[in-house]
Amino acid sequence: MNLDYFQLIDRIVALDLEARTIIVEAQVPPAHTIFEGHFPGFPIMPGVLLTEAMAQSSGWLLLGVTKFERMPFLAMVKEAKMRGFVSPGQLLTIEAKIEHEGSGFAVTSAKARVGAELKCSATLTFRQIPFPDPSLRVHMDAKANEIGFPLQAMTP
Amino acid sequence: MSSTFDQIATIIAETCDIPRDTITPESHAIDDLGIDSLDFLDIAFAIDKAFGIKMPLEKWTQEVNDGKATTEQYFVLKNLAARIDELVAAKTAGA
């Protein structure tokens, strides 16, 4: 997890395009300036960042489904529930599933756990549009490589 | 069984918090009901699920942008209901 660059996802553990599911891991850093303010004496991951981590997990799944032809942009967050505190140094395991694939949009559900304990969940809607700039596609390709996106999963 | 219009009117009322009795077959989703593109995503999701279809929103939008269709053809609710009926019929025929 590189909070300074808003990269919340470290590694793709499993991607199943047929089942429309993904599992990723995200290592919360042991220290960061965010934790100095949120909160002094009781550092925890902000809920908005946990939501973003679930959104990025869903995003990688949607990129796989569209074979990187469309970039997913978060449009709606529903039923976001922060069920337990996430502390610095903990390892998040995030699962996402596509609930619906519409015309130019998709809906996912996502859950994040630390160990077996469910920490947060949400239903997320994304707009899916062709990459608005070639440099973004290049960036996403590089990030996909960094987090171990299984490109072979997209070949028939 | 309620009509297609009744079903989509109920979906719109519940999704956008619009009084059901203000929604008529002649209502234009955008011009009369003030539904924006984000709310319409929510409506499309609910309609897709309710009718087991995939409304081709991108195709419709492209046709409007290209001047090949008017927004009334797709977003006046009686016309939207007719489009949905066509999609359901096509799906049934292809099943």
Index terms:
heterodimer; A: 6 strands; 39% strand; B: 95 residues; mainly alpha; 0% strand
What structural class do helix, strand and pairing data of chain A support?
A: alpha+beta
For the largest beta-sheet of chain B, the strand count, sense and barrel status come to: none
- What is the count of β-strands of chain A? 6
- The rounded distance between the terminal residues' Cα atoms of chain A is 31 Å
Oligomer: heterodimer
Helical coverage of chain B, percent range: 55-70%
What is the residue-mean pLDDT of chain A, rounded to a whole number? 95
- List segments of chain B where confidence is low: pLDDT < 50 over at least 5 consecutive residues: none
Give the chain pair forming the largest contact, with residue counts: A-B, 11 and 14 residues
Shape of chain A: globular
* N-C termini distance of chain B: 22 Å
Number of helices of chain A: 3
**Relative strand content of chain B:** under 5%
Biggest sheet character of chain A = 6 strands, antiparallel
- Computed Rg of chain B: 13 Å
How large a portion of the residues of chain A is in β-strands, by DSSP E? 35-45%
Short overview:
The complex is a heterodimer of chains A (156) and B (95). Helix content of chain A is 24%, strand content 39%.
What does this entry look like structurally?
The complex is a heterodimer of chains A (156) and B (95). Chain A has 156 residues and is of the alpha+beta class. Helices cover 24% and strands 39% of the residues of chain A. Chain A has helices at residues 33-37, 47-65, 134-146, and strands spanning 11-16, 21-27, 70-82, 91-101, 105-114, 117-130. Chain A has a six-stranded antiparallel β-sheet with strand order 1-2-4-5-6-3, covered by helices on one side. In chain A, a hairpin with a 4-residue loop joins strand 1 and strand 2. The N and C termini of chain A lie far apart (31 Å). In chain A, 31% of the residues are buried. The mean pLDDT of chain A is 95. By secondary structure, chain B is mostly helical. Chain B has five helices and no strands. Chain B has helices spanning 4-16, 37-51, 57-65, 71-75, 77-94. The relative contact order of chain B is 0.18. Chains A and B meet through loops of A and helix 2 and helix 3 of B.
